[in-house]
């Protein structure tokens, strides 16, 4: 399948090394992508989230839609590293934390063959905001693909059926990547091929707050004004990769 035809993706962000600060950084990355999506006129819908503290994510799974979105976003896959002084750090010491990003193309159902016997499907209460219906009905869905051990979940839709469809969409996206990347690793380990172990040493980009500098280690480019870029102005990064920009 040509990447130019892929206009829907799954964006998965996970906090890595660094404890609470890593969760806060995962939140910052999610906000950056959401705000940039707004500038580009892309859709951005949360499918599943595991929160940490008042303003952080352990994991976040999002569906994004837009013309040529996979080509524009695929370079974001990898480990992102942040160096900054946490708000709770009294001595002013700079902490290093990481968050991993995976960008997976959403494909048509016929592109990935799934057998019902290979799926373990469980339901639970979604919890969190959404009204009494969300909390009382077992609408959240978790699917385990037994041959590979891949587990996906969705809890943000209001009905069990809708959550199951979205979870299947995520699963197909992950299995499609496995099919495309067979040469780089074992089946069922596509995230490791994309993001490594999420250790501090395995990074594609560093966000250095004390020096107000973002460095992409793959292309050797650097940018200043971290706050503006994390605020959604990703055009300088897109230009460096020779990709379309928001034009704003």
User: What's the CATH C level of the largest domain?
Assistant: Alpha Beta
How do the strands line up in the largest sheet?
2-3-1-5-4-9-10-11
Overall tally of structural domains:
2
* Proportion in helices: 25-40%
Order of helices and strands: EHEEHEEEHEEHHEEEHH
User: What is the beta-strand fraction?
Assistant: 25-35%
Number of helices: 7
User: Which architecture of the largest domain does the CATH hierarchy give at level 2?
Assistant: 2-Layer Sandwich
Which segments are poorly predicted (pLDDT under 50) over 5 or more consecutive residues?
A: 128-135, 184-190
* Structural classification: alpha+beta
Q: What is the alpha-carbon Rg in Å?
A: 18 Å
How would you characterize the largest beta sheet?
Answer: 8 strands, mixed
Mean pLDDT: 85
Number of strands: 11
| End-to-end CA span | 31 Å
Q: What fold name stands as the CATH topology of the largest domain? A: Alpha-Beta Plaits
Form type: globular
Q: How does this model look, in words?
A:
There is one protein chain. The chain is α+β, with helices and mostly antiparallel strands. The chain has two domains: 3-108 and 188-240, 2-Layer Sandwich (Alpha-Beta Plaits), CATH 3.30.70.1660; 110-184, Double Stranded RNA Binding Domain (2-Layer Sandwich). The chain is built from seven helices and eleven strands. The chain has helices spanning 20-40, 69-73, 132-136, 160-180, 190-195, 226-230, 235-240, and strands at 8-15, 43-51, 57-65, 78-84, 95-105, 119-124, 140-145, 150-154, 205-208, 213-216, 221-224. The strands form two sheets. Strands 2-3-1-5-4-9-10-11 form an eight-stranded mixed sheet, with helices on both faces. It has a three-stranded antiparallel sheet with strand order 6-7-8, with helices on one face. The longest helix is centred in the first third of the chain and has 21 residues, at 20-40. The chain is globular and about 55 Å long. The two termini are 31 Å apart.
């Amino acid at each position: 399948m040509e990447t130019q035809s892929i206009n829907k993706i799954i964006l998965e962000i996970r906090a890595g090394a660094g404890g609470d600060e890593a969760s806060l950084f995962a939140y910052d990355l999610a906000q950056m992508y959401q705000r940039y999506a707004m500038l580009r006129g892309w859709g951005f819908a949360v499918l599943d989230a595991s929160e940490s503290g008042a303003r952080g994510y352990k994991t976040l799974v999002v569906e994004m839609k837009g013309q040529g979105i996979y080509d524009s976003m695929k370079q974001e896959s990898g480990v992102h590293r942040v160096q900054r002084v946490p708000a709770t750090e009294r001595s002013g010491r700079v902490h290093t934390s990481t968050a991993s990003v995976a960008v997976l193309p959403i494909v048509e159902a016929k592109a990935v063959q799934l057998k019902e016997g290979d799926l373990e499907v469980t339901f639970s209460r979604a919890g969190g905001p959404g009204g009494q219906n969300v909390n009382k009905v077992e609408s959240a869905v978790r699917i385990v693909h037994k041959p590979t051990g891949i587990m996906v979940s969705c809890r943000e839709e209001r009905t069990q059926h809708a959550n199951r469809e979205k979870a299947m969409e995520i699963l197909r996206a992950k299995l499609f990547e496995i099919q495309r990347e067979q040469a780089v690793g074992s089946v069922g380990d596509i995230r490791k091929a994309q993001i490594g172990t999420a250790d501090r040493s395995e990074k594609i980009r560093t966000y250095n707050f004390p020096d107000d500098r973002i460095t992409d280690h793959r292309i050797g480019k650097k940018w200043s004004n971290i706050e503006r870029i994390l605020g959604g102005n990703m055009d300088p990064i897109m230009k460096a990769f020779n990709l379309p920009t928001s034009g704003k």
